[in-house]
TrEMBL record, chains A, B:
Chief subcellular location: membrane
Alphabetical list of Pfam families matching this protein: MgtE, MgtE_N
Membrane topology: Multi-pass membrane protein
Similarity-based family: Belongs to the SLC41A transporter family.
Keywords for the protein's UniProt record, in alphabetical order: Cell membrane, Magnesium, Membrane, Metal-binding, Transmembrane, Transmembrane helix, Transport
Residue ranges occupied by any Magnesium transporter MgtE intracellular domain in the UniProt entry: 16-122
GO cellular component, one term: plasma membrane
Protein name as it appears in the record: Magnesium transporter MgtE
Transmembrane segments: 281-300, 306-332, 353-375, 381-406, 418-441
Amino acid sequence: MKNLQDYLDSHELSEMHPASIVKILKTLSDDELTQAIKLVPKDLLGDVALALPDRLFDDVVESLSVDELSHAVRELESDDQAAFMLELGEVDVDKASEVFESLHEDDQEEIIKLHNYDEDEAGSHMQFELFTAFKDEIVQDVIKRFARLRKENEVENVQNLFITNKDNKLEYAVGLDDLLIFDFSKTVIENIEASDESFEPIKAIDTQDIKEVVHIFEEFDLSVLAIVNAYGVLLGRITSDDMYDIINEHATEQMYHLAGLDDEAEEDDEILPAGKKRATWLAFNLITAIAASLVIGLFSTTLESMVALAILMPIVASMGGNAGTQSLTVVVRQLALGDISQGDAMRIIKKEVIISLINGILFAIIIGIIAAVWFDKGMLGVVIGLSMIINLFMAGFFGASVPLFLKKMDIDPAIGSTVILTTVTDVVGFFSFLGLATYILL
Amino acid sequence: MKNLQDYLDSHELSEMHPASIVKILKTLSDDELTQAIKLVPKDLLGDVALALPDRLFDDVVESLSVDELSHAVRELESDDQAAFMLELGEVDVDKASEVFESLHEDDQEEIIKLHNYDEDEAGSHMQFELFTAFKDEIVQDVIKRFARLRKENEVENVQNLFITNKDNKLEYAVGLDDLLIFDFSKTVIENIEASDESFEPIKAIDTQDIKEVVHIFEEFDLSVLAIVNAYGVLLGRITSDDMYDIINEHATEQMYHLAGLDDEAEEDDEILPAGKKRATWLAFNLITAIAASLVIGLFSTTLESMVALAILMPIVASMGGNAGTQSLTVVVRQLALGDISQGDAMRIIKKEVIISLINGILFAIIIGIIAAVWFDKGMLGVVIGLSMIINLFMAGFFGASVPLFLKKMDIDPAIGSTVILTTVTDVVGFFSFLGLATYILL
């Protein structure tokens, strides 16, 4: 506890940003953490807990009472409330339901609404806290209302005033930088009509795929986006800090999928769920490897008569796997970033095949010479060279076309593509090498 | 050109957001594009060109005159000017230098300043356009100045008023949502002192690593960050839209490094640079594969006496490679996201080893039974099972410890780790399997 005392002596927690408190907490041992968490100001506790890694969040919420948790949740904005309750439910269902019961009815309703959205839907990431006005309100009055909302901590981090009609349909979005130079004595709509700027709101629908929303943020350089329902009624907003998390999560998901990992199972920091999901992937890979072995088995007579083939054969398969993974990774990533579209398919496949083929020829020459010298047998060099060219050609072709095909079939190109690709490069690698050896050398 | 005409009939380009224009341009053929680009309003041309994929940017700038390009650049904000000139220089150095000469001296200076930063430094991503004031200015006057700046298009997308002292050192940052509810008749500092809020600015230093800046944005949920020099003098700002690009780029970089790709070479859409970088990686992989073959060669007598070993041996190496890649990917990604720190090393290695070991035992049993039945030889099953356990244990251990070690040595853990790992899993896989077979079966 000495460390902790030092921190308290040198820091005034109540004046700190939650992120700064988190930084200190992360350096503490588990025991210190559960004691230190009691010292965090109550109105920051929710933000602090949410910013901790999952493992520490679990420790923290277990050490807090229902009352303390309830207070922490009440201080959060709606999207964070929903996220907090979701995580809490995963740690301790009973505690979560007690905390939920203790919340204000409005908060409960909002949490339920957000939890009803699928994780992939824009709605699940929005917050309900908004700064809105009608177009015939005097700007001065709108700003007075805003001052009150700010004082009551009802809205934070506001960048836009959303103008809705009487049915709550979104009509305009006014950046605060525009609002600031409006004539405060006039109505909103008088100001809008007097300005050269366009106040047409950029918006997304609550059920829209969050991946599309990310692209809207990126393309339009937004820091906030209005979320409406299918009828155009303003529901909430998504802000730039959500984007950072979502962009990171999507990239992690993709990287993990390519390596045969499940991002949600890995997040947990528990061994069993992660291990199970990894085993599923390894099982697929085992089938692939056995298929490759069956191909090798076809040539057992050839192998028996020339042990050099057994020694060299993994080289062709390995180079094919690596070259294929290169093509695959580029295509999967560029598809995700929207840098290549379906219309580009032929161009992309052609490019990948050419690169693979050039490298195939290059490494065919190198390994051909090495094999010929190593085993003092010129034709062995020809065999391994030819099979290298064939396998790298196939690696480039399948590395590019498998993800493009999966995408066309509306399947996540990161998930299944690696196992399909390595099946191809293993089977083609062994078959071409041993087949050519049988034909040419025996 | 029929398509193009259709677009023009149905869209009013001058009223559109650059992102919407880009969406249309992307659907056009190359010929149509170079004609359509002439129809883009001059003040949007720079933004539109920058938002196009590199390949199309090249087509566009080649079809434009120096005058047109110069006009396009002048309309951009400083960070975009710097980015545009950099890209233009890559396409056509002479044209770039003519355009540069045609720019206003201030613009030239700013571009040079930004180009002087390394890409990894925060400074290279900032823009100089700021909304600043001194603390003893009356708020009303500050807003009047802001209205003028906005009218002249000098500042866009403003979210903060930065308060500096006479030496231009940053003292406070006032969000526009706070500014809006200030008493306009008083000075800035009077308002700040009357408020409960903290106006202490969150800032980064221009030479700071951009990866640290990303973490600041993520942790503090920022949409804009002030950039100061080492003496605290305000230089510029970085905004959330830069973050989206940077987060995406870093994820791409990492994914590409893991697969043996160079992100910059791949961006170019040219075959030669990408192919060369890929060949370097494949050359490393070839050395690894040859090392594995040398290991196999140690056991040529064993292989000659039992062809089943040649048929089965790729299975052990392949499973090890896959299990190792799983551990490696998790550790590399979580290091990048800041979810694990150096202090966690033992916990992470332990976790990865346990998962790999459990899966090793599981797949040892499965492949053991398959091998024993396939070749009707019980002890062959024991041999492959044991070597599976050994190799998956090593895969978990090296998959976790290699990136942790590289990180500790201050080397990017994504770059070298895959090749080190597969060397281990190939060599251990073949050595343990063939070694055990020699010892047990012969």
